[in-house]
Design goal:
The protein is an alpha/beta fold and 732 residues long. Helix 9 runs parallel beside helix 15 (331-344).
Length: 732
Amino acid sequence: MTRLRRFDGPLTRMLARAPGGFGLGQVPKDLVPERVVASVCGFCSTGCCLDIHIKGERAMNLTPTAGYPVNDGAACPKGWESLAPLGAPDRLTSPLIRNRHGELEPASWEQAIARMTEGFKAIAARHGPESVAFLSTGQIVTEEMALLGALAKFGMGMLHGDGNTRQCMATSVAAHKRAFGFDAPPYTYDDFEYSDTIVLIGSNLAIAHPILWERVSRNRDAALVVIDPRCTETASVADLHLQIRPKTDLVLLAGVARELIARGWVDWRFVEAHTAGFPELRQHVEAFRVERVVDETGVDRQQFDQFVDLFAPGRSVSLWWTMGVNQGHDAVATANGIINLALLTGNIGRPGTGANSITGQCNAMGSRLFSNTTNLFGGRDFADPKDRAEVATLLDIDVDRIPDRPSYAYDQIIEGIHRGTIRGLWIIATNSAHSWINNSELRSLLDRLELLVVQDLFGTTETVAHADVVLAAAGWGEKEGTFINSERRIGVVRRVAAPPVDAKSDFEIFRLVAQAWGCADMFREWTSPEAVFGILQRLSEGQPCDFSGIDGYAQLERVGGIQWPWPAERRGQDVPRVGRRLFGDGQFFTPDGRARFVVSDPVPPPERPDDRYPLVLLTGRGSAADWHTRTRTSKSATLRALTCREPVVDVHPNDARCRGIDDGDQVRVVSRRGVMRATAHLTPNVGEGQVFVSMHHAETNRLTFPAFDPVSRQPAYKYAAVEVERLRPGAG
Ligand code: SF4
């Protein structure tokens, strides 16, 4: 195989490193900080640490923390610009209430909280506890989301609450549970550097997780395989790019499993001792002969063989996936298809191996374990009486306060608004009116609610525009707590700046709501984020995510974060500098300790291209300077300069030619659900018959098709049927 260059372009240079930490000698005197406070970054799940430079009460600047095990002095553009959103002119400085003229006007906290709690109580009294729901987030610290989950479910009596992690990680959660018995990402970032073969599936790692990409780049001996319908920044420098047709990953994975079995490249010792379901896997993949794989995926035979060769016995293979897998209509089956390959070849629990789902948001992992939305605290099950009794004892609450069934998922909450069963909604730190799939429909549904409360930093988001009550929240850097990153590392977030005027931390807001609701007594122990951290340690004890042995925030700061598990018996032990992975002993979290092969037949996308909408719309990250709905990144002039502000649609030159579209033309991208205007960018990086638009424009989700994985209920953002039409000059 020809070895291609590793990526060494402008992006790598943007990952500017602070050599040896903050060099005071090079800094003008008036910028020399009085103190430096380390805090984990609040954008993505990588979990980099940043040293914030403080003078007086002002956070002046930052440098990425040298020596921190995750990023060792490097940060991507978003990390460097973390402080910019705090001083934005559209920060909310007080709560707002919509008046009888339909305008949002400033209100006191007493007025806003009273309007919220009295409104929700009245709705629940008329329509039952199912009629009020909440949408949590992966963007706040674990202690806050736990307080929210306990308050909403146990204190306010809500049955339904989900989080925006449904949009990014629900698929991985479901696949992990099915295969491993618990939502447990098995890896450490070090595995990028120990692999002989690195396989990235549906992941544009170079721009979505730039610090992890740096780890890949350090491993110059590994063969890098990228499976992606687009020739992304990452795929363009892979040793092998399998440019499959969209949503044919599962066929490819099953075909590879079949071929590995046919070649005898199965780790029999591992499979026999540590797995269950191999006979079913073997029977299932028999239908995926190479001819079928080539025909359905578009990958040629030679590439297929090259890919299988890279699983040769003795090689350490790691398989990594992100949203290209998770955001699909058949996503959990695909994620389990990835895990199957790792189990089949014994590539798990050893350095450089693993079936490794990379998380999206900074605290999606915290949300998965402790938001108390669709899972009961600590990865437990609301439907399990034993789990409910355990949590009730640990929290010293009446067990009857714990709902005995799982919550609706996000899409079911939205559907509940449509049916009229959900009439009050509390949205915290997420911009649903932008980010939800088929968002035109969602916006009209938000307007049907009797009461919509939105808690956010900014008064200008698409979701705030629909709110009846707006609660002014403090942001990252203005409060404290912990995040859990992709490799299960718990790190501390510190307060380095005061919130503007009358904005409050989410923690304070939840305590105010508890007071007004009349359930504050239930939270008498929940006095501060660090006190809640202690409660969460108790809730984790005996669970796979046990971190009861951590000696508070001080130890986390001293040792550069700690990966779970870190149970009580490790209290006082030295924390290893090297990353720790799970399953090294071949023991999984299933009842019999065996991992499961999980198989199912591929299902075609529910909306297919046709004569009217002949192209497949793909969506994804725009650049390393972008984050989701841009509510924060748009506040930085530096980040704005690094991104495309207006929508651009990537079109294959052949598709453009037959539509009379030239590079730079204004076009309409049209689906059955809506239209967006964009500038055409002609590029062979998208396949023929496909177009790509970044996810950061609210208009993108006018086009997306509201399909959901049947197991994880994660939205399928990555496939919709569209047409692209050239706009006549002057046309709107
Ligand atoms: S890679 Fe993620 S965690 Fe690291 S600096 Fe960038 S946004 Fe922050």
